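queue> pop job 88
queue> type: inverse folding (structure -> sequence)
queue> payload:
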């Protein structure tokens, strides 16, 4: 038996899904898109699977979530639909219900948030409503796990029937719908009523395969006769039906009580206080999770656990069992060092995830998005992009994973593409190295790095927003401001667990492979004509490759193989740039900021070329862990390649412009690459300021 869970965003779908399935669930993605798909088995009923469909307000074809849900319902034909509605917000939630019932699939309605309904002294006659709609309605409270057992009992019954026809439409509308039903019944006998209504609304996606001309003629006649758009006729009549029905069954306390939630919002979303409060909250989260607890646990895992404890233990063990030196080097220097560097971020990420999950669950995150949305929309990002940007100053991996909370797919892809421009924690040693070696350790270098990150995100947003890739049907953007409530520990724990475990799984795959490759390239090479393990990094394959690719970076001012190799090493982990340069300049080991090689570095670089090197390393393709996160979240190879290429091309061109123009201004040198730089500036100016080809998004905010 297959059950689909359908409901508005924030109606408690995920909470109910977790109640119904317990821990038995499978999380994946809908094919080819970034929308998450959750499947599970109902507790104690192994042969009953349930799918959590994306949250939607309607079965229209406008948003990706709507299309996915619709196609699932029509193509997979679940045996039963559980339609979850927010009992404290019936007017809006029943809009979807009226459409779901038209599908003719047996449906059970779960009326959620009954605790809120009670608290607000709303009385709902669920029996009466159930009779009028011809569908079972069961009261539940998903977060308090109340009414769940009764609901399960009801849904696993074999004898659930589709509801009767609702009395929603006027006679003229019904006539047209019946006519359309007759036309399409020649081709199909599935979902006749649903499809006929959608066709009446001129739904292009349903049109395929039917006699389009005849249907459109009918619709045109109707629109002319009543001088109204059929889609809005249907919408209006649905709402009228809902309002009239609810009048009979809902009694609200006449006293207008100002809920705690509204009181908090008066302060938190206040025109003047909103931003300062937000900055304060995020500042605290950031301070605690990245600099104090986060730094402590990360340093401990990196330096003690993966530095002092595990490597000697493993080395001793391997030596005792007489493993070959190659194997020991692979495991200790390659795998433990590489994977350990990545796993070192896990504790810090877990702390951060916990804070974010709390902010998310208690309802504050929605406010942040609301506050930031106006500003961010101007350059093609969603208000919710701000959260990934914040997290990105710690580590891009959780930042990119946090982009999941952005509903609109285009905004989400844009955020995934641009977030790693923020200087993450691992880039700080690189910044410190360059600042120390060439700029007298001056503070503006690191400040400028954050500025460069923000500038790159904004500029990319403006540029990309105008490209075809990010255009398309403008999707209405609806934002929810759910009522504040204490965070639910189970929700928080689950969210932290899901994000954390998917990261750890990746460390075992993509990152493992990448570290093995880099280990191989830097430990093997030709010496005296024979191929084998090399002691000296200078004779490794990596060095040879560095020499081949170094000329590529000459226009950026640093076409030396050492800098090139360090950049490549940065793909494993950005802080590896410093360590690699240390090794290449002949140090056995350097401190985090590489103080030992400052003087040598100053000989090989000028101020200009060093800053250009820094720019490139800040903006180019991120580390493998982040690339893995991009791949996972984009869920599409084409988009992943696009994002990484875009970042690298952006980094290259910006560094080139910086170096060549800088060179011209300081020394007057003018040549081929100066012309290229000027051409690039013109191209960027064009991309930034050309008129926008596509329409703007609409922003609607719904309070509840
Ligand atoms: P979804 O967007 O439909 O998946 O909704 P979620 O399951 O994420 O729930 C949205 C918010 O409503 C969460 O903060 C839940 O803790 C909260 N919530 C869910 N069910 C109930 C309920 O029965 N009562 C109350 N008071 N809150 C609930
Ligand atoms: Mg959900």
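queue> result:
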């Amino acid at each position: 038996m297959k059950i689909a869970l359908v409901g508005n965003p924030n109606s408690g779908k995920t909470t109910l899904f977790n109640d119904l399935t317990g821990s038995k669930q499978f999380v994946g993605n809908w094919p080819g898109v970034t929308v998450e798909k959750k499947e599970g088995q109902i507790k104690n009923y192994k042969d009953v699977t349930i799918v959590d469909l994306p949250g939607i307000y309607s079965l229209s074809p406008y948003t990706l979530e709507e299309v996915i849900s619709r196609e699932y319902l029509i193509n997979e034909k679940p045996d039963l639909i559980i339609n979850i509605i927010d009992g404290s917000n019936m007017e809006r939630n029943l809009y979807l219900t009226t459409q779901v019932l038209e599908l003719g699939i047996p449906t059970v309605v779960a009326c959620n948030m009954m605790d809120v309904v009670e608290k607000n002294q709303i009385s709902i006659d669920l029996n009466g409503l159930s009779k009028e709609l011809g569908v079972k309605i069961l009261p539940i409270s998903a977060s308090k796990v109340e009414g769940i057992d009764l609901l399960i009992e009801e849904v696993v019954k074999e004898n659930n029937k589709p509801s009767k026809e609702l009395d929603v439409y006027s006679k003229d509308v019904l006539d047209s719908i019946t006519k359309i039903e007759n036309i399409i019944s020649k081709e199909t006998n599935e979902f006749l009523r649903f499809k006929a209504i959608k066709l009446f609304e001129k739904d292009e996606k349903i049109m395929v395969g039917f006699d389009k001309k005849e249907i459109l003629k009918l619709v045109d006649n109707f629109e002319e006769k009543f001088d109204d758009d059929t889609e809005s006729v249907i919408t209006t009549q649905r709402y009228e039906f809902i309002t009239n029905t609810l009048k009979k069954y809902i009694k609200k306390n006449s006293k207008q009580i100002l809920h705690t939630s509204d009181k908090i919002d008066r302060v938190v979303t206040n025109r003047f206080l909103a931003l300062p409060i937000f900055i304060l909250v995020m500042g605290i989260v950031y301070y605690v999770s990245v600099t104090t607890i986060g730094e402590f646990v990360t340093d401990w895992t990196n330096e003690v656990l993966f530095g002092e404890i595990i490597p000697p233990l493993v080395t001793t063990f391997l030596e005792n069992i007489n493993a070959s030196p190659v194997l020991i080097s692979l495991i200790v220097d390659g795998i433990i060092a590489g994977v350990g560097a990545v796993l070192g971020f896990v504790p810090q990420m877990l702390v951060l995830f916990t804070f974010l999950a709390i902010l998310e669950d208690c309802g504050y995150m929605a406010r942040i998005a609301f506050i930031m949305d106006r500003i961010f929309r101007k350059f093609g990002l969603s208000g919710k992009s701000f959260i990934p940007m914040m997290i990105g100053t710690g580590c891009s991996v959780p930042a990119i994973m946090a982009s999941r909370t952005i509903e609109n797919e285009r905004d989400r892809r844009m955020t995934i593409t641009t977030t790693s421009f923020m200087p993450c924690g691992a880039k700080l040693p690189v910044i410190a190295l360059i600042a120390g070696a060439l700029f007298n350790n001056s503070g503006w270098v690191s400040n400028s790095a954050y500025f460069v990150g923000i500038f790159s995100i904004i500029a990319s947003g403006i540029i990309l927003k105008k490209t075809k890739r990010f255009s398309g049907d403008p999707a209405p953007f609806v934002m929810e401001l759910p009522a504040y409530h204490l965070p639910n520990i189970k929700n928080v724990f689950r969210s932290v667990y899901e994000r954390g475990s998917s990261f750890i799984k990746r460390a075992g795959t993509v990152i493992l492979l990448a570290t093995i490759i880099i280990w191989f390239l830097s430990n093997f090479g030709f010496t005296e004509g024979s191929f084998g393990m090399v002691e000296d990094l200078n004779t490794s394959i990596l060095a040879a490759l560095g020499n081949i690719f170094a000329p590529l970076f000459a226009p950026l001012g640093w076409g030396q193989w050492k800098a090139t190799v360090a950049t490549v090493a940065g793909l494993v982990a950005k802080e590896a740039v410093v360590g690699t340069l240390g090794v290449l300049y002949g140090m056995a080991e350097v401190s985090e900021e590489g103080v030992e090689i400052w003087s040598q570095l100053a000989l090989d670089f000028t101020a200009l070329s060093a800053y250009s090197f820094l720019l490139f390393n800040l903006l180019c393709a991120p580390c493998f862990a982040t690339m893995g996160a991009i791949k996972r979240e984009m869920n599409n190879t084409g988009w992943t390649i696009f994002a990484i290429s875009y970042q690298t091309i952006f980094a290259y061109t910006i560094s080139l412009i910086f170096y060549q123009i800088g060179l011209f201004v300081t020394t007057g040198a003018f040549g081929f690459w100066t012309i290229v730089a000027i051409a690039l500036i013109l191209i960027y100016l064009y991309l930034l300021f050309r008129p926008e080809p596509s329409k703007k998004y609409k922003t609607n905010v719904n309070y509840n």
